[in-house]
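Recap from last week: sequence in, structure out.
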Amino acid sequence: MTQSNTTAISGEDETRVGSDLPFARLVRVVQDLSRTRSIDAITAIVRQAARALVGSDGATFVLRDGDRCHYVDEDAIAPLWKGQKFPMAACISGWVMIHRQPAAIADIYADARIPQDAYRPTFVKSLVMVPIRSVEPIGAIGNYWARPHRTSEEELRILQALADSTSVALENAQIYEQLVRSEHRYRDLVENLEDVVLSLDAEGNIQYVSPAVAKFGYTADEMVGRQFECFVHQDDRKSMLSSFTEALMGEAVGCEFRAIGKSGTPFFVRTTMRATLENGIPVGLRGVLIDVTEQRRTEEQLRVSQRLESVGRLAGGVAHDFNNLLTVINSYAGFTLESVKHDKQLHADVQEIRLAGERAAALTRQLLAFSRKQVMQPKVADLNRIISGIEKMLRRLIGEDITLVTLLADDLYPVLIDAGQLEQVIMNLAVNARDAMPTGGRLSIETSNVELDDSCVDQHPAVVPGSYAMIAMSDTGCGMDQQTKEHIFEPFFTTKEAGKGTGLGLATVYGIVRQSHGYIWVYSEPGLGTTFKIYLPRSEGQTAKAGPPARKVVQAAAEATILVVEDVEAVRNIVVRILKAAGYTALAAAGGEEALALCAGHPGAIDLIITDVVMPRMSGREMAERIIRQRPQTVVLYMSGYTDNTIVHHGVLDPGTQFIAKPFSAADLTHKVREVLDGRPGEP
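Predicted structure tokens:
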């Protein structure tokens, strides 16, 4: 590890940042991680930084290795467990990864999660462990103290920020390693080197270029003897010539610029040029041109992903409060419609209010879809059956002037998918195709089985090789240029006129596909139409279902007592009103503590708890679990405006969890309540 990778701050820096020193150090560490492409270097940076950032007596860096925790490295006042591996269930780092949450333990001998026999020979008295998050937790960072220590909120925030940055750095390193492996596979094909070896004279004329230049469409004969700047994008020539002139002065100079291929396509290349000397006099330049186009594209994909994640976090927070408001607005609009049936004008006005509320709810669902925070209920399904089931609807959607053709493969792989969400994907893409063909055309939907192998991974580093069912939707519309293709999946990006679209259609498609562990790619050229290809992983060892069971008709309400727990008064009142109108006995509580007290004093049975997931002081799940321990026959229906890890992991409900998303209508709620009550153990 070189000195440049350390996180030390000088005395002058410490004076300048004052009380912000830990955060200043954290910023320096994050910068170091962002520039690091080696897992070994990441390990060294993190284990040093973890200890320095919070002033602990030891720190350890843990990576998940299958079902074991590998203690990769440590920085401590005495040896701990460097190099050792432990079962996930036998160590606190495994607990942190399994539960996807930090653990701050002031006294390790008072916590049942700690394997005390393993800790007694060590100096450790207190610890904090935070997960390194990814699609699945991939590791953990631990800090240890030789004295009793209670971790502060600030320390926990700093360590979790370090862990989050480490997750990004590890993903970047993995992508970088994939790119390096890709380069090595082709290196032996042409002169044992894939990159272009270049030699220039002092005037910039090309003296030699290796056969690898064929990647740009040229032969060596077409380039030798010509000025090198002729093959450089005109906007980059000035900076390139400046760097080359500096290199002629004796310094090795690195630079990046766009080289122009024979077809006119620009390529991003990186080179370090050195002077060629004869008798100590520079007579030319030599260097290697490295094509970094894919790396630049990958970096842009990472930046786009980070932007989507940021907006997704914002959407999740907004959705919780926004969906509470929509529940109240839409419910009262429904009540009012029933009471103004004989006043046509007033009835029409209230109907517009309800329609606006429903459109707002749809917008929220789209936001949650692209942020991959919606609740999905996937089942093994046959894509052909789903497509055939909505074919008539698609024909009406696209209009008579567009011909719809379906080419569905036999023996298509079954996939694990939320069928309703996939229908939304297909319809959104069909609408997109329709808008691209205002004067008519052809839309084809094709399915097939495909194998994505290592060659595909070279072009799309995020892909997991394997068997996939593919849906291709192709139109004969106006097509898209490269700039448009780079932004189509971003939220609120649209090429339509103002008022003609929200810019969330393709963002929703992208979110649903990625949340289903699939991939979506677009192929398009101006004037040549567009093809979207969706790849969904094969569901092994399972058979596709014919379809969801027929929805049960809601019977008249049986006698049942229901406890409603909701911290927002307006929503609580709405739910109670709906339940009472359906014939139920409804009790209400504004939070977990009030609900516990009410249950303790209620003499009769409580058949069902309807509770918000996220509430102040006590979550809905914690409250419900405490009540069920006293009343095991009680069942729970959770409601929320957005998903969180309390009842949902990666967008899929925990097994056995009953859930209704806000906003909901009176009919939605009463149907769900009946469904939950009918499904209780012992019920017919």
